[in-house]
Amino acid sequence: MPQENLNKPPESFLRFFRWYCHPDYLEDLEGDLLERFERNADRNSIRSAKTGFVKDVIKLFRPGIIRPLYSNQQLNDLGMLKNYITIATRNLLKQKLYSSINIGGLAVGLSCFIMIFIYVQHELSFDNFYSHKDNIYRIYQRQLGNMYQGTDYFAVTPAGLASTFTAESSEVENATSVVQRPVLLTADEASFFESGLWTDKEFFNIFDYEFIKGNARKAFEQPMAIVVTESFATKLFSETNALGRSIVVSSHYGDHEYNVTGVIKDLPSNSSLQFTYVLNLASDPQYLKSLKNTVWRNSNYQTFCLLKPKADPTALQDQLSDITRKYEGENENEPAEKAYYIQPLSELHLESNINFDIGLKGNVHYLMLFSGIAIIVLILACVNYMNLAIARSIQRAKEVGLRKVIGAIRRQLIAQFLGESVFIALMALVIAIALSYWLLPYFGLIIERPLRLDLVDNPLLLPILSGLILFVGLFSGSYPSIFMSSLKPVNTLKGQSTHLSPKMKLQSILIVVQYTASIVLIISSLVIYLQFDFIQNKELGYNKDHIIVVNTRSAELRKNFDPVKNELLKQSSILSVSTSNFLPSNIGSSTTVYSTPDNVEAEITMYNNSVDYDYLKTFGIELAAGRDFSLDLDSDRSNVIINETAAKTLGWTPAEAIGEQFFQGQNPRIVVGVVKDFHMFSMHLAIQPLMLTLRRDYFSYASMKVSPNSIQSTILSIEEAIQQHSKHPFEFQFMDDEFDRLYKADIKLGKIFGTFTVISVLIASLGLFGLAAYTTKQRTKEMGIRKILGASVRTIVSLASQDFLKMVIIGFILSIPIAWFLMDIWLQDYAYHIGLEWWVFAVSGLIAAILSLLTVGSQSIKVSLENPVNTLRSA
Amino acid sequence: MGKYHLGEFEEIVLLTVAILKDEAYGIAIIDEMESRLKRSVSIGALQTVLRRLEKKGFLESKFGEATKVRGGKRKRYFSLTAYGKKVLTETKEQRMGLWNAIPEFAFSRI
Fold first, then answer.
1. Considering only alpha carbons, which residue of chain A is nearest residue B43?
2. Are β-strands A590-593 and A639-643 bridged in parallel, bridged antiparallel, or unpaired?
């Protein structure tokens, strides 16, 4: 026994060797070492054998033999991770079609979401850059019952309100009057006709614009002061340092010279107040006069006020009512009772129900509609992604079985599937970000907002997107991962995986959801399209073709228009010329008239338009009764022509109305003609009572009916004739363009809605296609057997398609009430609209059915045509 | 074909493995080299080269049966791969080519 012990090599060195040696080499190397030791011990001495052993162990301690630095466990984890990635990529590449449908669909849906999110965020960010933004309120009024273009709210207030309010309210720090007015500005020989602000010196204390040159507090010390933006200064003087330069302002007060007292930075794109210059209101004689009024009469100015810190808006509202009541006074001539309200600045941009409002407007309905679309498209894309991910993962039952046999525990499998799912969703996100980065400028162009994708500066977008991806990835991964990891390896490896596939209940529900949403969108697009078609083709009651409209801003031109008109009419290409205050497409002025001179009875809001002799002729407006204004009769100055609606409102038929009269104040108006109703607003609003009065000295437009030939040269000759009497830049448009402008917002909406409908239908079709392709593939054997037993191609196709068709039909049935409800709301916004007819729904359902038949049918036909020998022989 | 130039020791190890044929495991290789070449070789030096050659694909290895000697540890037998054989032959031919290129008189002068 001791002999045995002595023959053993030094234990410590053996242990050292075992510790450092690479595990793969350990056994045979240890054997070699021991063999040599044993031989040495036999031949020489134990001692030299031990020394030799130690030497060998030390000499073996070299790279190539030593184990790697990482321990076994970590090595395996890295390997598994590598394996997961390899398997994931292989799976993606193996099913290129499904992978691209899957990732592409999600990417498109996500980019729609990103773009609309940025749009909505931009709309909600309006006016958030002022340092007092939370304390700035604006004041508006309601003239009860004085309906004008659909609402009796008005943004204009009396001139005296700002200063009175500052003096008498305990909550108000400061208030300013603002009015937007276009004038002609001339500097260094160059003239620009632009719309800008007229305001008082408090303006810059409330809205703290950054002054590049000059001082905000001293800017309006002198009345003849103007502050311009950086880019406008560059436009006028070719440099930003415009301080002290003079600009001639031509308005209806004549030409006056103003001094530039400040240059401010260009306004951000999310500013409601958009202007290039600000003029001192103290140089406006009309304003100064109305400031002196002790009783407020006219409302012409927007009023903004800055509240004291910690002021109470409800107390302010009470004080406002008290103060305004005091100054309004009892006024016999006031047609309507007035009430004043305050509104925070943040609501200004999306407020669209107030007449004569200031600033760039957004549309709260569009915002909601787009958000809805974004969410629908996103849901569609996510549903799609989940459906395909679930379908695809079921094919991997064998992989799961094998992994389990080798020793994968359930948690690892779940982690693998979840991780893979999140990873693929992440790929979609990267593509979506690239896509929206590229598409956003075009989208911005359509909706007229300078949109920009900035992931770094945008504090909300990235977290939301990451959260979304995590959710989509985890949700779509959770079902397959939990289901797959519960499979018994014995079953899956025996090849029973197909029997184990869930009955597609979840997937069926998801497909029905997709189709419901898609059909709702198809119906809506169709209704929107039909409504636009209806608007475009509805009999307007006036002619909009071949009419050139010139803006007549110059007072000199208006004074000398008769010779100009005669000169124009000498040309054979100009058929008639008419001047008017408004174009027939948009009548922008109203007054109150009464049927009796004591102004007690039958109060009517009557829209009015002052025109000249040739208005009806130029625009082709037809008379229902009576006559047009006549050059021969001087009395026509107080006579009016009314429309059928006005006649009806006053209780006359068109024929009865001739010779009748109504009263504007004390002045009688005698009806000499009744015109047939024409659409005097956009189709959103109903036709209202209208009177045309004869007035030739003041007008805004000169309209010319021209012959359609050689329009270019006609325009040139018109410009020549007009510009003899006008310093203003020559501005003209075609009447039909002017008409289209009424529906610019609607057309914009239609375009975007159509695009998103196509996208979402595409996504839904892709999803259906992917799923159909997958399920038919799974049923190839069944189809093969059916074929052998004598099934025809037609039976097999219908068998494979009917499940999907059923889902589409359910989706269709569900979509009808939703679409009907939504479109009914939308159509209510138009005074003149189409009815919701059954065939619209039928056509939409048919479109969806055909699309789904095509996608599903292509797959099932492919299967049914295959030779059963091939389908049945394959493993 | 990427040329791999065998080192001197590598060449000797490959040749010895070839000589030993089915009996080429660590100690046997050392013994063979020591007896034929009269130079002592440490396990460490040999094993590093063996593993390197195996990784390069010149050699392959398999475990033998466990025996009572060597503490019950199995032997790892090395053998030449086709690639290894090819490299060896090439090396030999290069050498022979060099030898053949030596002019007769140059040698005889020495």
1. A56
2. unpaired
Interface test with B, best of A35, A48, A53, A56 (most B CBs within 10 A): A35
> In terms of CA atoms, which chain B residue is nearest residue A28?
B75
When comparing pLDDT for A73 and B80, which is higher? B80
Does A66 lie at the interface with B, CB-CB under 8 angstroms? no
Q: CB of A603 within 8 Å of any CB in chain B? A: no
Angle at A238 between CA A233 and CA A244, to 5 degrees: 50
Q: Sort out which chain B residues have CB atoms less than 8 A from A61's CB and list them.
A: 44
Residue of A nearest to B25 (CA): A32
pLDDT value at A57 more than 70: yes
Q: In the predicted model, is pLDDT for residue A583 greater than 80?
A: yes
A599 pLDDT band (50/70/90 cuts)?
Answer: low
Q: From CA A340, how far away is CA A145, in angstroms rounded?
A: 14
Q: What part of B 55-84 touches A (C-beta under 8 Å)?
A: 63, 69-71, 73-76
How many residues are there in chain A? 875
Confidence of residue A187 (pLDDT cuts 50, 70, 90): confident
CB-facing half-sphere around the CA of A390: CA atoms within 13 A? 27
Average pLDDT over residues A225-241: 88
Q: How far apart are CA A317 and CA A301, in angstroms?
A: 19
Q: Which residues of A touch B53 (CB under 8 A)?
A: none
pTM (two decimals): 0.71
Q: Do A32 and B27 touch (CB under 8 A)?
A: yes
Residue A413 CB partners (closer than 8 Å, separation 6+): A400, A403, A404, A481, A484, A485
Task: Give the ipTM.
Answer: 0.85
Q: Answer for the pair A267, A229: CB distance below 8 angstroms, yes or no.
A: yes
List C-alpha distances in Å: A313 to A167, A305, A338, A370, B63.
17, 11, 20, 32, 91
pLDDT score at A278: 92
The pLDDT assigned to A82 comes to: 83
Residue A60: which of B44, B69, B70 has the nearest Cβ?
A: B44
